[in-house]
Amino acid sequence: MVRVTSSKSVNIPQERIFSVIRDIGKLPTLFPDKYKSFKIVEQSNKHILTEEIVSISGKEIKQKVRHFLEPNRLLKSEVIEGDTRGTVLIIELKSKSDSSTEIKIDVDLKFGKIGAVFGVFAKHKIKIEIDKIIEQFAKS
7, 15, 38, 68: most buried by Cβ count inside 10 Å? Predict the structure, then answer.
């Protein structure tokens, strides 16, 4: 298990950032270096289920992910199948009094079979990747 958290305040309204997060199907366009394959398998009012091949620290990982959205506030993604089963990623947005928004990403990454390859050595690299994700949300 590797747990990584990062946050940043940006001068963008919370609703605008959430509109980017909410459109799960556009994540591969937003992050083409992360998503090698992406398919929405099921969608309801409560969740979105996807099948993905993602690149994490240079390794391609096939996974099935259930995404939960809390309007204008939160995206919680949980890997339910694959080598990183049990991984949870939370993107949380908080409006600040100066009209800026704090973007916080918290990842509890489970490596399963590939843990011996990554381990704690990947923590710094994953933090850098998370910071890049926050920057991309800020640019969108």
Answer: 38
